[in-house]
Write a structure and sequence with these properties.
Blueprint (H helix, E strand, L loop, with lengths): L8 H9 L22 E3 L11 E3 L5 E2 L6
Length: about 70
């Protein structure tokens, strides 16, 4: 079965060249209560990934910063 790569070769190369620290920064603050830092748990995906998600340990809010819905 053939699966098409969603990245072009140039895009994949550019992503490989990015420093690792720029691929995952600290999670965004909670949109409900404003908690930051250790209160925010994330799924450890790079923060530019569409499925990057967060959960607030303070109020329980769950959100995906990169999704519009």
């Amino acid at each position: 079965m053939y699966m098409e790569n969603k990245y072009t070769v140039a895009t994949a190369h550019a992503l490989q060249q990015r420093p690792q620290s720029s691929q995952h920064s600290s999670p965004p603050p909670c949109p409900d209560c404003g908690a930051t830092g250790q209160a925010i748990r994330d799924n450890q995906l790079p923060d530019h990934h569409i499925d990057y998600s967060c959960e607030c340990a303070t109020c329980g809010c769950k959100w995906s910063p990169n999704r519009e819905d």
